[in-house]
Specification:
By secondary structure, the protein is α/β, with parallel strands linked by helices. The protein folds into three domains: about 5-85, Winged helix-like DNA-binding domain superfamily/Winged helix DNA-binding domain (Arc Repressor Mutant, subunit A), CATH 1.10.10; about 90-160 and about 270-295, Periplasmic binding protein-like II (D-Maltodextrin-Binding Protein, domain 2, 3-Layer(aba) Sandwich); about 165-265, D-Maltodextrin-Binding Protein, domain 2, CATH 3.40.190.10. It is built from nine helices and 13 strands. Helix 1 packs across helix 4 and helix 5 packs across helix 9. The chain is elongated.
């Protein structure tokens, strides 16, 4: 059994055709078919069954794939670690982060890091809170930047900063000319929120509960920019981070389509932290990026 056959097995298991997998492996389609049959003989079970014109994993194939993923991921991490030992100024940082942090925090951290380590490459992923933790547990990322402590025994988390949240209202809203309000004053409003599973959704629900009400959800989205756009359209209000320079008094910029109001009756903020696997040694490039992030913040300010 060689690693290329395992890679081809994984590719076919994930929906690639045998012809495409053979081309990627630089062998003929019949040769790959024979290799997959030999693999089934070695394992002692049928791994694929044909459904129409495509191959689907059998129950035994699904179990086997879990172990194949572990073997291949471990091998790739090992090769990467050796390469970084040989050339410590290079390497790859595999980083996953919240969608909302891709507009300001991650670019700032990456830019500062690459000024010192220009040869390091980045593998970037975006996900919600649950997806981020899974990236670490599945070893598809070495580090995650997330909005809360995942609370998992296999994950170590450190706070980087506290990001303020604001009540975003349309420019013509009844509260739009104010700078500070109580969140309780918005109890009757329609709220535009992220879907369940996103950290900002749970923060919103917690803050509303502290203010004495449950939010009336008008829309559930997956991107903060979508929430911001729907607030602009007058479809509701939202608890979200504010873009830079967007929180001045209304008279300072009367053309802004959204007003950002600070809240006086709740602590409207969320933690932003970085996490890594507790039981797995980070590769050198990942360790350097972790140190950079911990050193750079709170020198990197959050939008206010």
């Amino acid at each position: 059994m060689d690693l290329q056959v395992l890679r081809s097995f994984r590719a076919v298991a994930e929906g690639v055709t045998v012809t495409e997998a053979a081309a990627e492996a630089h062998i003929t389609q019949p040769a790959l078919s024979r290799a997959l049959h030999r693999l089934e003989n070695e394992v002692g079970a049928e791994l694929f069954q044909r459904v129409g014109r495509v191959l689907r994993l059998t129950p035994a194939g699904r179990v086997f794939k879990e172990y194949v993923d572990t073997v291949l991921d471990g091998y790739d991490r090992g090769r990467r670690a050796v390469a970084e030992v040989v050339d410590p100024d290079s390497g790859v940082v595999s980083l996953a982060f919240l969608h909302t942090l891709g507009t300001w925090l991650v670019p700032r951290l990456v830019t500062g890091f690459r000024q010192r380590f220009a040869a390091v490459r980045f593998e970037l992923h975006q996900a919600d809170e649950n997806g981020l933790a899974q990236h670490l547990l599945d070893a598809t990322a070495d580090l995650i930047i997330t909005g809360k402590d995942p609370g998992h025994p296999s994950i170590t988390w450190r706070r980087l900063l506290v990001e303020p949240l604001w009540l975003a209202v349309p420019a013509r809203h009844r509260l739009a000319q104010r700078r500070r309000v109580r969140l309780a004053e918005a109890a009757a409003e329609q709220f535009i929120v992220l879907k369940p599973g996103y950290g900002l959704r749970s923060v919103t629900e917690t803050l509303c509960r502290q203010a004495g009400f449950s939010p009336l959800v008008a829309f559930e989205g997956e991107e903060v920019e979508t929430l911001r756009g729907l607030v602009t359209a007058g479809l509701g209000v939202s608890l979200i981070p504010a873009p830079p320079d967007a929180t001045a008094a209304p008279e300072a910029n009367p053309d802004l389509p959204v007003r950002y109001l600070s809240l006086t009756d709740v602590r409207a903020a969320r933690d932003i932290g970085i996490a890594w696997p507790a039981s797995r040694t980070l590769p050198p490039a990942g360790r350097r990026f972790l140190d950079h992030a911990l050193d750079a913040l709170p020198a990197v300010p959050s939008p206010r």
